[in-house]
From TrEMBL:
The protein's enzyme class: oxidoreductase
Quaternary structure (record): Homotetramer.
Gene Ontology molecular function terms on file: L-lactate dehydrogenase (NAD+) activity
Name assigned to this protein: L-lactate dehydrogenase
Function: Catalyzes the conversion of lactate to pyruvate.
Keywords noted in UniProt: Allosteric enzyme, Cytoplasm, NAD, Oxidoreductase, Phosphoprotein
Regulation: Allosterically activated by fructose 1,6-bisphosphate (FBP).
């Protein structure tokens, strides 16, 4: 058993998402060592050099391209390796390719690293989180996905714009699948404790049904729109990865909608999806049972059923 280096992170997959995440992690100052791993070693080497050249403007750390052995003592292993969506493809279309990549990657990580946290980012993130938990044999609290952390950030951003208020004062979650069946949990949404509809009215917005529909659709379709325009999404997810790592390394016990395997909560069992959870140094320290309306509960169940079908076919 290799002792963990609490200040070390490994990023597996150095494409758009992996390299943007590595850059955000370098800037964060959370780690003093970062290893980049990719099947294309030259790409990992190039990214390590490029990102290192920002260090004189940040905090000292070692950044290098390496192998799975080098990830043996990483406190967090961020897995972004896998094909991304092409224009028009859904996240679930990526299942077969990326499950097969995970079957080669995850056992390699687990061979050298038995104590770290696996943070899954590649898509479909819920399916791959489940697969990673099974393939690694790690306790489930140490294997989770970025889930709807990004969708929730998009949700807060859009609500902040709509209401002309700092998005950090918006408390609202996207839950369920990171994908087409995700749910905007309106019934618990608020701005600094003021129920969302009341705050909307304070800001002169009264057509709640219309606005709710538009904002939730906009969140859900954000990635499609960006992929159509620039081929991939990576800055938003990079900041999400940074935020999750911060919660882990600083043992913040922050409430984040990460994806983890459910065990009967809301009638959902043996499938990974996002619900707000307490995230700290031990990983997922517990789910937070936010209030959901009956309709939201039904939608959540439907989201779980969609994922379960894909899981049954894929694994
Ligand atoms: N969870 C989220 O919110 C979120 C957001 C954006 C993208 N993504 C997902 O992240 C993944 C990566 O997207 P991207 O745009 O960076 O793709 P990309 O094609 O730019 O990068 C993928 C990288 O993985 C590497 N790779 C492939 N097979 C590998 C293997 N067996 N071992 C090691 N490395 C391997 C490739 O060489 C490449 O560098 C995709 O699945 C994408 O859908 C997730």
């Amino acid at each position: 058993m290799t002792a963990l280096n609490e200040r070390k992170v490994a990023v597996v997959g150095c494409g758009f998402v992996g390299s943007a995440s590595a850059f955000a992690l370098m800037e964060s100052g959370l780690f003093s060592e970062m290893v980049l791993i990719d099947v294309n070693k030259e790409k990992a080497e190039g990214e390590a050099l490029d990102i290192s050249h920002g260090l004189p403007f940040a905090k000292p750390m070692q950044i290098y391209a390496g192998d799975y052995k080098d990830a043996g003592d990483a406190a967090v292993v961020v897995v972004t390796a896998g094909a991304g969506q092409k224009p028009g493809e859904t996240r679930l279309d990526l299942v077969k390719k990326n499950v097969s990549i995970f079957k080669s990657i995850i056992p390699e990580i687990a061979k050298y690293n038995t104590e770290g946290i696996l943070l899954i980012v590649a898509n479909p993130v819920d399916i791959l989180t489940y697969a990673a938990a099974k393939l690694s044999g790690f306790p489930e609290n140490r294997v989770f996905g970025s889930g709807t952390v990004l969708d929730t950030a998009r949700f807060k951003y859009l609500l902040g714009e709509h209401l002309s208020v700092d998005s950090r004062s918006v408390h609202a979650f996207i839950i369920g699948e990171h994908g087409d069946s995700e749910i905007a949990a309106w019934s618990s949404a608020n701005v600094s404790g003021i129920p969302i509809h009341d705050f909307c009215e304070m800001r002169g917005h009264f057509e709640h049904e219309k606005a709710m529909k538009e904002i939730a659709e906009n969140v859900k379709n954000s990635a499609y729109g960006i992929i159509e325009k620039k081929g991939a999404t990576y800055y938003g997810i990079a900041m999400s990865v940074r935020r999750i790592c911060e919660a882990i390394i600083r043992d913040e016990k922050s409430i984040l909608p990460i994806s983890s395997i459910q065990h009967g909560e809301n009638g959902i069992d043996d499938v990974a999806l996002s619900m707000p959870a307490i995230v700290g140094r031990k990983g997922v320290e517990g789910l937070v049972p936010i209030r959901l309306s009956d309709k939201e509960k039904e939608q959540l169940k439907a989201s779980a059923d969609t994922l379960k079908k894909v899981l049954d076919d894929a694994l």
